[in-house]
């Protein structure tokens, strides 16, 4: 005699129905928090440091430069070697192989920490402040070339990390967090890709209608690699 699996089938069906209801109710709840114009963000941590400066120039671009700015080429100099700026991607590059897995994102806690710092900078500007205010606090007492070198080091880095590392400006962290969390709100959803199982995150951010989306998309690309920021339409 076959075993009666009626109760098991009913239990599975009930759990499946409950799961669909929870997703629908949670989606309705999120609609009460986010409005048209808020941002939907995807951060993948793929292909980071893709914005490294390209030092090579075509012959046409080199010909139009002033003699003092032209790059030495084999046509105009066979003695001086050409020295290119070091590509930062070489530090983490590994040769392709079928036995090598694709380089993954940072450890989950470290990645979420980077995202939190990016959101705090985002909220700081949404509150009406500027990144220049943070830099002025960090660069207080620096002048001339020393200040310019410090600015170049921070231009594509994390200002919140710099605040943490500076014992003099450490108190600024409380002000940034207070202003940022009052200006914006966010929800983070972690996900593993269906094809390769790669960890990435999706975010919903509110309170950012007055910010320039493409500018922050570019900053996200520099810090998190392939990313996407789209406004919520409906």
Any overview of this molecule?
The chain is α+β, with helices and mostly antiparallel strands and 234 residues long. The chain has a domain at 35-51 and 104-231. Helix content is 43%, strand content 11%. A hairpin with a 6-residue loop joins strand 2 (185-192) and strand 3 (199-206). Helix 3 (108-126) packs across helix 7. The longest helix has 26 residues, at 6-31. The chain starts with 5 loop residues before the first helix and ends with a strand. The model is unreliable at 50-77 (pLDDT under 50).
Secondary structure layout:
Elements: H1 6-31, E1 39-43, H2 59-63, H3 108-126, H4 131-138, H5 144-154, H6 159-165, H7 172-183, E2 185-192, E3 199-206, H8 213-224, E4 227-231
Antiparallel strand pairs: 1-3, 1-4, 2-3
Helix pairs in contact: 3-7
């Amino acid at each position: 005699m076959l075993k009666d699996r009626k109760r098991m089938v009913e239990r599975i069906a009930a759990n499946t129905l409950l799961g669909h209801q929870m997703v629908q109710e949670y989606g309705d709840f999120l609609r009460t928090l986010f409005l048209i114009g808020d941002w939907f963000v995807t951060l993948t941590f793929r292909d980071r440091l893709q914005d490294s400066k390209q030092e090579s120039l075509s012959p046409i671009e080199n010909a139009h430069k002033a003699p003092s700015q032209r790059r030495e080429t084999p046509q105009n100099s066979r003695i001086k070697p050409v020295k290119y700026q070091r590509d930062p991607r070489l530090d983490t590059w590994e040769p392709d192989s079928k036995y090598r897995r694709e380089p993954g994102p940072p450890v989950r806690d470290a990645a979420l920490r980077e995202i939190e710092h990016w959101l705090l900078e985002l909220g700081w500007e949404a509150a009406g402040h500027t990144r220049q205010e943070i830099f002025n606090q960090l660069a207080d007492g620096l002048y001339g070339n020393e200040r310019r070198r410090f600015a170049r080091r921070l231009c594509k880095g994390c200002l919140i990390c710099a605040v943490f590392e500076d014992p003099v400006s450490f108190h600024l962290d409380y002000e940034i967090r207070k202003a940022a969390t009052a200006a914006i709100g966010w929800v983070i959803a972690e996900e593993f890709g269906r094809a390769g199982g790669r960890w990435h995150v999706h975010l919903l951010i509110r309170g950012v209608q007055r910010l320039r989306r493409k500018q922050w998309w570019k900053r996200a690309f520099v810090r998190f690699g392939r990313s996407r920021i789209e406004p919520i339409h409906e």
